[in-house]
Every structure is written in structure tokens, then in C-alpha cells.
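Catalogue entry: protein

Sequence with per-residue C-alpha cells
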Amino acid sequence: QAMTIFADLAVGGSWAGAPDFSSTGGQAAMKIDYIKVWDSNPYTSGSGYTAIVPTQSAQSSQSAVAPSTNTAITISDPTAITHAEGDAGTSWYVYTVTRTGDLSQASTANYAVTGYGANPASASDFDGGVLPTGEIWFGGGESVKQIWVPVTGDTTAEADEQFAVNLSNPTGAQILNNAALGTILNDDAGYVAPSAPASASAPGAATTISLSGDVAQAEGNDGTHYQIYTVTRAGDLSGPTTAEYAVSGYGANPASASDFSGGVLPSNEIWFGGGESVKQIWVPVAGDTTPEADEQFALTLSNPTGAQILNGAAHGTILNDDAGYVAPSAPAPDAATTISLSSDIAQAEGNDGIDYQVYTVTRAGDLSGPTTAFYAVTPSGASPASASDFEGGVFPSNEIWFGGGESVKQVWIPVVGDTTPEPDEHFDLTLSNATGAEILNGVAHGTILNDDGWIF
């Protein structure tokens, strides 16, 4: 919990670089959101103080409200803060948490530091020998808080070490970006070179990430309105996974940077810790009162580490809600651009878990604009596959999306392994409803090979 501390100040005295104080009965009060309360000033040497737990009357009367899609908190850019540990004492890594949207009420969130990467930091690398945890608290009107992570200096020669600062359990807001990274640089003689830079394990078919479906939402007349997309991780969740995401204009009436908060096309990184399976991407749309056609954008995942991207694109529509609406035109297919499915695949099903049949869709011709197409699996042949042969007990279907300049996409078909003797089973993978291209070859055949001793 955030707490208030009181410190007697010498006449005319102050702490250089300390937060602003407000007078309280001859003493000074401030809100502490750091990892621990020190018995000496963390901002400058000297001027010790005594920390006390506030009474109920000393607490702010503001309380957190239910999460709102109009309020979001995000930790500073997930690019790692890199800092030497020092030989003794404490070195601070300072992360900024920013709140946007409706700031009229209070918001809180928990934070926790965890080891991360090839050389994860441990509790002994931090003050007090514990992995730092705590809570940040925004009062009404407040938009910026800091998390101070205290790294303990030593004289031990060792590899650089990595950690992650994770936000969780928000109240009165939703978390827009939940993680930032830190690297503790060794600065001692006899340095041991670290292994590969901190990142998730090598991508593998045993772990996948997928974006949720399309979102269409009114833009509103002012402020920021969030379109919320879910990224789901499946398979082996024991290690970390990261991926970058980016928004780009799309379709006949593409959204532009001015349609989003801050006047930039949103992009960032998502980060899954061990055991985590769901993350959200909040796309901040700026409201306006300009009559205009509905506008479209694409949200795409890229550059995964520790996973493969199963479905990496979703579409967003910013619905105009202002008088004088202009209906958009439909994107016209371009005969100079074609898409084609790769050849047939026959693959053993395996005995358990998920085994993917991976098909390639190739785009040729004019690649300057976007292209989309739907795909669907249907049973075929004398021994047709059934829905139970696929993950989730449903026939796979979804959409593929090519951005400008892109020529290759993959369709991952998740086949469920079993130990039931049965004949080989067959299905068709079919492309349809293409925009921005013609389908040159739109069908591939898949065979799920039995590997359980079936006797014909």
C-alpha cells in the first residue's frame, strides 16, 4: 500500500531532487510509491528521516474505481534499461508509469520484479535480498508515477543479468503495456561474458500466439477510446514469449496517424511471463467531430521470440459517429496481384498435444497495397477428418493479411494427436473472399496420417 511519511525539515532546508512536498501542521508530507521506505534519503546523502504508517485519517479519501476502458496505465518503453550495478550500496533503476484517458478518479496497480532471459537476476541482486514488489497509486488528476528498483552493488565478476518489471491487478484502469526490462551490467574485473542477449527461448511449434478477431467501434467525439484486442498464447507456457505489434492503415479508407492518440500509429511490444497465456493490446483511437467515412486499420504481430505466430493479424474499424457520414467504398480486387496456396501436406498426427500442418500462401505481382483472404478447413475424401481432429474441436478458419510489400504468409492448421487406431483422414484447406488480389490456386489437401497401428 502507498503510505505517507512525515519528516521534520530544517528551516530553509530541502532535499535536492526530491518530490514536491505539501505543508502539514509544521511537517512535510509526501506519497511514497517506491519499493521500500529507507531510513536515509535516497535522493541525496544525509538528512535522515523516520517513516511512520499513516492513520486512516491521514489516508487520501480517494479510492480506486472499477476498471474503465477510458483509463489506461503503461510502463515505460519495454526496451531494457541498462545500468552498471556498482561495487557497493544501491543503484536505482527508475521506470515511469504513465496514466492516460480519464484521470478524474484514482487508479492502482501492483508491480513485481522477476528474473528474465539467459542470465536472470535473482533476489540477491536487489536490496534486502528479495525480488522487489509493491503498488503504485494514482490520485485523481495524476498521470505519472515512478517505480524505483534498488539493485545491490557488488565486486563479484559475473555475467550481465536481466530482470523484468511487471504490472498486474489494476483497479480504476486497464494496463496498456505491462512489462519493462532491465539489465544489470557487471562492472567488476574478471568479467564473464554473458550468453546470448536477454530474450525468450528459440521459437518452436510447441508454443503459439494468436490475435483475437476484428473490432469495429465508434470513435467518439473527443478524448481517447480504446479498441481492445486479445493475444492468446497456447502450447508450452513454461518460458517467456515476446512479440512486437504495429498498427497500419488498411482498406479503401485507411486510418492515418491523426486518428490515434498522440498523432502516431501505435506500436509496441507484448511480453508473456512463464505461465501466462493472455495479454491485451489497447489501441488508442482519438475522438473527433469530423464527418468522414469509417476508417480501417490492421493490427499485426511480428518478430516473436519463444513462440510462433499462429494468427498475426486483426482488423479494426473506426466507425464514424458524426453527422454527414460518407459511406466508404469497397476495396477493388486487383488482377495484377495473385495469391496461391502451397502444395498438399501429409503428416502424422502424433499421440498427444498439437501438431501443426503449415501451409504457405504466396503473393505475386503488384505488392504495393494490402491483400486479405479468408481460409477454411473442410472434410474431404473417403475418410474425412472431423472437427474433433483439430484443436478446440472446430474446423479451423480465419483470415490472412498481407501488408504492402509482403509476399509470404503461413497458415498453421492445429491437428490434435491421439492414440486411437484409425484410417488416415483427409481435409481441404480453401482460400476465399480475397480483397486486393485474385486467387490463383486456392485449394490444398491435407492428410492426417494415422500412427497408431491401424490395420486396414
